[in-house]
Write the structure tokens for this entry.
Amino acid sequence: MINEHIIKNLSVPNGSVDVVLDTDAYNEIDDQFAIAYLLSCKDKLNTKAIYAAPFLNEKSKDAADGMEKSYDEILKILSLMKEDVDTFKGSNSFLKDEYTPIISPAALDLAERANRYSPDKPLYVIAIGAISNIASAILINPKITENCVVVWLGGHALHYHDTMEFNMKQDVAASRVVMSSGVPFVQLPCAGVVSSFTISKYELEFWFKGKNAIADYLAENTIRVADSYASGAPWTRCIWDVTAVAWLINDGDRFMESKILPLHLCDYNCKYERVPNGHPIKYVYYIKRDALMTDLIDRITSRD
């Protein structure tokens, strides 16, 4: 795809668009907010599928277990919201190199689904976890790079000394496949940018509790987790992943500011490296916290 077409598809889309979401939903408390927000934006975003992404930390015994738990958590959120969306299990490990896809129902679905779209009417892929599913799909079907736009919450801000961010550091090979593939790519860095999008216990209790089933779950789950390590002390939790969804409805820059930059890749020491003659990407550098929080609250709590 020529740079002019990439730049066109790096603009916030006009009108209603089709979306798939790739999420490690059991990893933290923020993916659940992102799923709920996405499904509450039906005026602009048509959710066609949700993919379960792998993760590995104290909540999973390995990447496959993380993916399975994420799959179950996605189904739980859909049940609470009384929504029916095609949901697919993803990779059972992280990409081992930059050439070999991991075959999974999620990767195969995206590889096939992308063929129904075009550079003039792309499919938007929101990724809020390790990005093995998306990288695998690109390796299976390179046509994705023409027919899709990838919006990824991953890496830290470029001015940080490293990019040991959870989604990126556990899946460096996959990040390099996706970012270097030429697909129109929007990056929402975590520390230094999206880290400003936080919510407090008192906001959760005031704005979410008692409104509906999904709002109750989001509040109670977040408060339970935060109180487990900060009980008796003031705390806020970052609900990072909401911002990746919000980019798609960021008309007029109402929720965030972004700019076109040349491609920077994460190397295998988790340092950014400038890519000579790299294609342009869209880089989000500022979140308008209160405006986005207001929209998040309004959309989720107004549901029946």
